[in-house]
Write the structure tokens for this entry.
Amino acid sequence: MALLTFPHFSSHFPLLSSHFPSLSFSFPNTRSFSSTRRYCSMKATGTAILWFKHDLRTDDHPALLAASAFPSLVPIYVFDHRILSRFSDETLELVLLAVEDLRKSLKDRGSDLVIRFGNAENVIQQLATEVKATCVFAEQEVEYELRFIIDVVKQRLKSVSVPQGSPRIELWRTPFYDIKDLENLPASYDEFKKLRLSVTTPLQLSVSKLPGAEIELDWGVLPSYDDIKGFLTSNQQKSGEKWSLMKETSAETILRRKVLKSGNNIERSSRFGLTQSRERNGSVFVTQKGNIVGGSTNNVLNALAAYLRYLEGTARDDWQEVHEKVRASESRNGASFIGLFGPALSLGIISRRKVHYEAIKYEKERNAGFLSPFGYSAATIAAAVDAVCSMEWYWLLALKNQKNNHGIHSTRIWKWKGFLIQYSVAGEDGPAILLVHGFGAFWEHYRDNIHGLAESGNRVWAITILGFGKSEKPNVVYTELLWAELLRDFIVDIVGEPVHLVGNSIGGYLVAIVARVWSDLIKSIVLINSAGNVIPRYSFIPLSTIQDRQTSGASWLGSRILVFYLRLRTQELLKKCYPTRVERADDFLIII
């Protein structure tokens, strides 16, 4: 499978003619990350299919620009239950609005968007046969389940015959940095930041008209919210509907109900009867809850402009609404950015480097064209830049791990609420076991236990929870209930059946919460040196509120000093944790 990359690539469409000399490619099974070569080893002939997944935009879209040079272009979005089932109800609303805007944007340029329901591999194979496709463009993924789906699509395309041979699948990405070799990627984000790599420039689709399809097609009808929910329900397994309802109810709601004895007042979606998610007049907060930015790319860009200019104040109603949301969601310094824009970034309504570009452009406007070496002039600029740079780092790290995933322990990626979570799995048959690490640890702490358990006739999963190890560390408020909900969703989405849940240290505290709140997911729990609050009868509600997790400037400074101290003494401290086997505090344990 070839991979497209577009480092420092001019946005002018004429450069894409002929053999695309500005494009560079790399292959997942090689060390080189961007070895230059000509496009696809073939000319842009026949029909290209552009498969949209988490790239729901026409702005800064390298594959759309490349596919534009084919004589015929057929864009498609597949409503695949395996992908949609991971989304919250609010995210499903965003998907529908983004797909609607994507279709409109393509139509404005003379194209359209095929809309289909079903398994992506079946839909893509059918469409490729119908239009006699020569090439299928798909964004590269790091999440295990999506990588598996893409591999199946690739195999199915081999059975499609066109005059030029079987269609090729071309994996592409929107490069944030011009990185030549992932093998040299530093082992930590702090070390990576020291490289001070420049960020590539976003692309503009400068053509007014895209090539159309060469044959008449049934383009499909944009579904309603009810259609999507009905489709997901029809594809659920026996326990699927019940488990899906578990995901719709927050841990805090369940615990509050138990304490306050408020009967069946469960927090559930009130939108099932909604025929279509609505975009409120003039608002950038387009979902029914109105907590996150969404809609069209232009809508998100407008919200971003308002966010970056928070300190300036405004007379515009839509910008005032953004500023109010910033104040409400700034639970810690900079956390409002991920809270408001995270879902739009995860769905690709806007690209990470577009956010970076807009933030830096505004910073230069504030400083007469200069960038200070001492930091950014506004907290919102710093929050936006830090967030997208961090997201890109963890994406690259996940991609590197997938390329080098040949050791005794396989590493996989699961995307939870837009964040990349690392886990490992072993065993083919038997009861399901989920291992949860302790504070300051990661799944590799069980590296000597996983295969022993698997060889004893079990299927074993070990997870690195959000904020630890090589799982993503977003700027969010971390609580015990957040981590408990992550474990709940992992059991539902990845394991798919009740588990024997094992927790060490604070991991024991978290698995105890999961067992108490969602007992149907648990066969048994094992607590190893369990630590953490046991949630007294009335204490869990204030513990889980955002206000109690806010920190002062003095606390922030103190935490930074503590982290610096701990980094200097990591090995010494770890050896004290393994007094009888100090060799366990090896470089592997410390580097992670």
About this structure: Residues 58 and 405 are 33 Å apart (CA to CA).
